[in-house]
Amino acid sequence: DTGVSQNPRHKITKRGQNVTFRCDPISEHNRLYWYRQTLGQGPEFLTYFQNEAQLEKSRLLSDRFSAERPKGSFSTLEIQRTEQGDSAMYLCASSAQGGETQYFGPGTRLLVL
Amino acid sequence: GIQVEQSPPDLILQEGANSTLRCNFSDSVNNLQWFHQNPWGQLINLFYIPSGTKQNGRLSATTVATERYSLLYISSSQTTDSGVYFCAVTQGAQKLVFGQGTRLTINP
How far apart are CA A43 and CA A54, in angstroms? Predict the structure, then answer.
């Protein structure tokens, strides 16, 4: 069990650029979640996959955001035409089917200038 | 949607002191987790505790589901206990709903 990993750990970009983040869940965990955390707040749910199916999306996930999990293993989160309000920590978590505990990765900290 | 409130928002203690953090939730839940977020942002699982009491070393937690609250106890605090503690719940769906956190500072 190597834990949930996320890359990159930090990303600085200019407004209007596209960015993509990657999450590798704990092996054999078929559920994968994305959350966003802004300064001083608790994490907020963005979206959730079971295997390769995206089962729920928050209204926080605007049209500029897209998430994929093509083979039911790793996942990517893309933000198009970034805005300064997208600056946040993006957290990924995974859990096993039948297991309720979610395990979090170290996060990707995004700064949009 | 369900509301999760944590108290106190900030807590400053001397090393060796004991502390109690509270989490209130507005409706019945089927999952409750406590996390410690370290200064680098990593969320570390402390307890999965939808009901009952659990202990792990100097930390223990109690959830009274019928009264919709959970308590996290930290005994003999150490400076490494500093950070933000989050309570998070699920209500049927898979997504965790987090409270605003309690920022704990342990001074040497």
Answer: 19
